[in-house]
Amino acid sequence: MHESERFVIPTWEQIYTMLLDMAWRIQADRFSPDIVLGVSRGGLTPARVLSDLLESPNIAKVKVEFYLGVAERKKEPLMTEPISVDVKGKRILVVDDVSDTGGSLRLIKAHLLEHGVGDLKTATLYHKPWSITLPDYFEETTSDWIVFPWDRKETLRKVAEKFIEQGKPVKEALETLVKYGFDMGLAERFRNEIFGGCLC
């Protein structure tokens, strides 16, 4: 496990600002994608926003599965949904939320090259320092576990389950996340939905 026990919990507004800055840099490079390709699931929301900011309406997706839990992943990424649109000779911007191991981006790039992609760029909000793939565009580098706005409930569940496995109470898991900026009201709501309000 590379990640520290620390968390980064960006807000929707912080994510949007990061994507605004990224779009400006992409435009400054005069890269105008024919297709914005979101990596399911984490890259779908950033891809949609970048599609709007870059005024590039053609969106496609590809699905690669890697994570098993918080800071737990398979040895190798698996492409479970290949690209379903014609990319031959096209300019493609591949968008994901984070380049962690870098294996997913490497797999997708190889897949697109096999299908004759023209110009290919990659973009992620965050980059981990140990990633084997350096995205063409990224906004921040961190070793911490990132809790994105679109996976807060899922992450809370996994963190709480990890604490339970270690003999620690759910309450301690919530307190840890709140310490790093997770909204207390939202944490309580998710706890009630997932664990029935149990603090054990």
State the gist of this model.
The protein has helices at 12-28, 44-53, 103-114, 152-165, 170-179, 184-195; strands spanning 7-8, 35-40, 59-69, 72-81, 91-99, 119-127, 137-141, 145-146. The protein is an alpha/beta fold and 200 residues long.
Strands, helices and their partners?
Elements: E1 7-8, H1 12-28, E2 35-40, H2 44-53, E3 59-69, E4 72-81, E5 91-99, H3 103-114, E6 119-127, E7 137-141, E8 145-146, H4 152-165, H5 170-179, H6 184-195
Helix pairs in contact: 1-2, 4-5, 5-6
Describe the protein.
- This protein is α/β, with parallel strands linked by helices and 200 residues long.
- The chain folds into two domains: 7-146, Rossmann fold, CATH 3.40.50; 150-195.
- Helix content is 38%, strand content 27%.
- It has helices spanning 12-28, 44-53, 103-114, 152-165, 170-179, 184-195, and strands at 7-8, 35-40, 59-69, 72-81, 91-99, 119-127, 137-141, 145-146.
- A six-stranded mixed β-sheet has the order 4-3-2-5-6-7, sandwiched between helices. Strands 1-8 form a two-stranded parallel ribbon.
- α1 packs across α2 (44-53), α4 (152-165) packs across α5 (170-179) and α5 (170-179) packs antiparallel against α6 (184-195).
- The chain is elongated.
- 34% of the residues are buried.
Mean pLDDT: 90
Order of helices and strands: EHEHEEEHEEEHHH
Give the total of beta strands.
Answer: 8
Alpha-beta content class: alpha/beta
Trace the largest sheet across and list its strands.
4-3-2-5-6-7
- In the CATH hierarchy, the third-tier topology of the largest domain is known as Rossmann fold
Largest sheet: 6 strands, mixed
Net shape: elongated
The helix content is: 25-40%
Query: What's the CATH class of the largest domain, please?
Result: Alpha Beta
